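Can't paste images in this forum, so I'm doing it all in text. The chain is below; anyone willing to post the predicted structure tokens underneath?
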Amino acid sequence: MQILITAGGTEEPIDGVRTISNFSTGATGAAIADYLTESGFKVTLLTSYKAKTPLNSMDILFYKTFEDLDNRLKDTLGTNKFTGIIHAAAVSDYSVDYLINDGVKMKPSTEGKIDSTKDLAIFLKPNYKIIERLKSYSINPLTVIGFKLTKNGSSELISEKVKKMFSSGKVDYVIHNDLQNIGENYHISEIYTKEMIKINRCQNKVELAAFLAKLFREI
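Text version of the structure:
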């Protein structure tokens, strides 16, 4: 059984030394990848360059930007018969469209460094939701598991955000985390079906990985 896991966070370039990113470490994806590998699954991990890497030997691919991640997913899902994907990567909702530096409009570039003594305005453009395209990228029927992170979310807000992830009809399970329930020794996760049934609540990453292994075996 082949499983693809995405982890880490995208970086969107402003210039050769500056990016817009997030605080994802890739630790959850790496922990799940390690557990599934130890449980006999064939795992490919697609992770960002700065993310935590797993302890066990497995196929590891890297990405940096939203575009990198999307292209890697197209190539990897289009050439391998994966059973499922655990899409844990923190994907940027926006990319840099253009900049205005001291009144001059320019495109973002990884070449050079923008003069920091001049005014700089950054204009963003929304990215599409990669998770909604994963099934179409795959040459094999694919079970898609996504993540939704909230911050101090009420039960109503959490329900709304999880429902929205299912609205495309392209996601099979959603794992919800809230920042207030993530700490050094705990990482609470709740797993939902597309019918909005909460099928488990895990206290840490190991419990989550064990549940996902069981879930894939039963699919």
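The radius of gyration is 18 Å. DSSP finds five helices and 13 strands in the chain.
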